Amino acid sequence: MSIRKRGMEYHYEFMQSGKRYYGVCEGCTNKRKAQEYEQKIMAEVKDLAAQQSVKALIENRKRELTGGKDILLDNAFDVYLDKPAKRHPGPMRLEVNRRRWMDFVAFMKGMYPDVARLDQVVRRHAEEYIDYLRTNGRFILEVACGKSNPDKSYIPKRNQLSDKTVNEYHTILKSVFTRLAGEAGIVSNPFDFEAMKAKTENREVFTMDELALISRNLGKDQFCRPLFILGANTGLSLEDVCLLQWADIRLEIQGEFIVRRRSKTSVSMEIPVFPVVHSLLMELKEQRELLAEDERSIYVLPEHERMYHSSNRAGVSYRIRKFLEQLGITTTRETTGARRASIKDFHSLRHTFAYVAGIYGIPLAIVQSILGHMSPEMTRHYQEHASREDKIQFMNQLPTLLGEHVLSEGQSAVQTFSSHSLLLENVKENSSIAAVEECDVLSEENGVTALRQKVVEFVTGMPAEKFWMFIERLEQENVEPEMEDTVAD
User: Fold this and answer.
1) What's the CATH number of domain 208-395, 1.20.1340.10, 1.10.443.10, 3.40.50.880, 2.40.50.140?
2) In this predicted structure, what is the pLDDT of residue 26?
3) Average pLDDT, stretch 343-362?
C-alpha cells in the first residue's frame, strides 16, 4: 500500500488476493485525501472479492446441497422425455415441442454463449426469450420442410407468432425446467411467471343449414367426402382421421367401435360406429380389396395419410378450407394479429359433434369419453361410468350429421338434417295417417329416433304422446280418420 505523487497527481498502489491494483487518486489535492481515496478503493475491492468468494462457494456447494448434476441445454429435452410423466403427447406433438425447445437453446447460444447448462438459466434469460418471441417471432427463422425433405428448409414470409403460440412455447419450456429441477439442481424455475393473456378467436360450430349444404355437395369432392363423414359422426380430430388404421375398427359383442388412442394426448377412445360410418368403411374396404395384397395400406384413408405425413401436411387443411369456401362458408376472420384467424375448418366438426351431443342431452361424461378430451386421470374417472352399453344407448340418440345420401346414388336421405325438413313438408302435403306412419317407419329403420316426434308434432299440432293415444283409441274402434279431423280435434 503506497501513495506516490507524479507531477500534479497522486497515485495509489496496493495488493489484494495476489492481484495488483493501481490508479490515479481522482480529485485529490494533498496526500491525506489521496490516502482516504486509496482506503475507499481498497474497501470496494475487498467487498467485491468477498462477494465473488460467496458466489463461488454457492456454485461449488450447489451440487452437494441439491444433489443435482450437469445437464446441458443441448441434451435437456432428451433427458426430459426419459423422465416419468402422467401422460406423453403423440409423436407429432413431441416433435413440435422439441423444435420449440431447440429454438430456446439457439437463442441462449446466440445471446448468452457462456450459458451452457440448465441450472445456469435465470429468470432474466427466460423473460428476454418470451419477449423476443412476442416481438420478433421464432429465433430460428428457417423451418424444416418435413419428413419427406428433411435436409431442406425455408424461411416463412411471416414470423410473427400469435399470443396462443407464444404461451405454448412458455408452457413447454416451463415443463422441461420443472421436470428436471431436482436432477439439474435448479432452485427456482426461470419460467415460473404468468403467461400473457391470449386474444384468440374461437372456432365456430357449423349451423344446421351449413351441414345440409356440406352434405349435399360432398359427392362432388371425393377427397373431402370421407373426411367430413368421419369427422362429423365420430368427433375425431383431423390428425386422428388421417391416421385411422383398419386395426382400429373393432367388431365387439356390443357392436362396432373405433378404438384408438388420441394422437395429440394418447388418451384412449372408444367410439361407437354410426350406420353411415359403417357404410363408408365398407365402401372403402371393398376398394382396398381390389388392390394387390402388397399394395393394401394399413390406413383407412391412405391418400390422406401420405399427405399428412409428408411435407405437405397443410395441404389437407387447405383442400378442406377451399371446399368450404366454394360453398360460400366463411372460414377465417380478420384479427389484430399477423394473420387471419380460422373460425370454421375441420376442427369445427369436432366442436359441432360435442355441441349437438349436448343439445340431445348426452351426459358430459359420455361425450368426453368419446372425444378423449381430458387428462388420463379424468379419462379413468369418467370411463368408470361410461360403459360401451352406455355409449351405444346415448350415441343412438344423435342424428347423422353428414353423409347418408352421398354414400351411393339413390340411397335414402332420411338420416340427414337437410332431408328432415323436406320429409316434413312432404308429410304436410300428404296429410294422412298413412303418411305419418310411413315416415315413422323410415325414421325407425334409419335410427333417427327424434324424427318420430317431430313428424307428428309438425303435422298434427299436438304432442306426439297424445296423438298416438288418440290413434290407438280410434284403431280399437276401427275408425280411419282424416288428418284434418284429427288436427281439428
Assistant:
1) 1.10.443.10
2) 87
3) 80
